[in-house]
Write a structure and sequence with these properties.
The protein is an all-beta fold. The protein has a domain at 146-219. It contains no helices and 8 strands. The protein binds calcium ion (CA) (4 copies). Residues 117, 145, 151-153, 155, 157, 160 line the site of one calcium ion.
């Protein structure tokens, strides 16, 4: 049986094969065989021929409306060049989907602060639909003002009223050095560091008593 030689081409087109035969005497002869297999004009790419292109669009949020092209290849559209993230930037609190992931203002928080003086505190707030809210900051509770260099009652003033406390003009603190900030040996009869005898000076004279002076001199 005469052998059949087979050669297969993967795509349609016009192909010619030359078949040459040499006999036992050395004589040769040949023949040309042409086979034409033209792809159909419409290969199911919506009536578009092979290799044609069409515009595409893609993207959501700030990337909505990005464009590209795709190509009709072997009966289907493919190779879309549209980039759904072209133009994407980091998400910010503005009511827009800046990073083009389909969600608006997601995962945005920022630090907050509230209260003054001893009541100062911190918290966070969250962005929703372009607005910051849900602040978790809660100020601390105020307490009575004492002479300690802090704004205990959270009114914005430090140690207000301390200046009205009578000072003891004794030998250690005299000369204007007595105050809540600079005099380690606070001689005021009602101050937190009051450990001095308040007797005998001209300012506190007459003010000393058992209720506000640890060393009551009976003035
Ligand atoms: Ca987003
Ligand atoms: Ca945003
Ligand atoms: Ca205060
Ligand atoms: Ca204070």
């Amino acid at each position: 049986m005469t052998p059949i030689h087979t050669h297969t081409y993967a795509a349609g087109g016009s192909y010619t094969s030359r078949l040459t035969v040499t006999d036992n005497g050395g004589a040769t002869d040949y023949d040309l065989v042409t086979v034409v297999a033209t792809p159909p004009a419409d290969n199911d790419c919506d009536g578009s021929p092979e290799g044609s292109t069409q515009a595409t669009s893609c993207g959501v949020g700030a990337c909505a409306g990005n464009t590209g092209i795709e190509t009709c290849t072997a009966g289907s559209w493919g190779g879309d060049t549209c980039d759904p993230l072209a133009g994407a930037v980091a998400e910010i609190c503005d009511g827009s989907d800046n990073d083009c992931d389909g969600t608006v203002d997601e995962g945005l928080t920022q630090a907050t602060s509230c209260g003054v003086g001893a009541c100062a505190s911190t918290g966070i707030e969250t962005c929703s639909a372009g607005s910051w809210g849900g602040d978790t900051c809660t100020p601390g509770s105020p307490s009575a003002e004492v002479c300690d260099g802090s704004d205990n009652d959270c009114d914005g003033q430090v140690d207000e009223g301390c200046g009205t406390v009578p000072v003891c003009g004794n030998g250690i603190c005299e000369g204007g050095g007595e105050n809540c900030f600079s005099c380690a040996l606070d001689c005021r009869c009602s101050g937190p560091n009051c450990s001095k005898d308040c007797c005998g000076d001209e300012i506190c004279s007459g003010n000393e008593n058992a209720s506000n002076c640890p060393v009551d001199c009976g003035g």
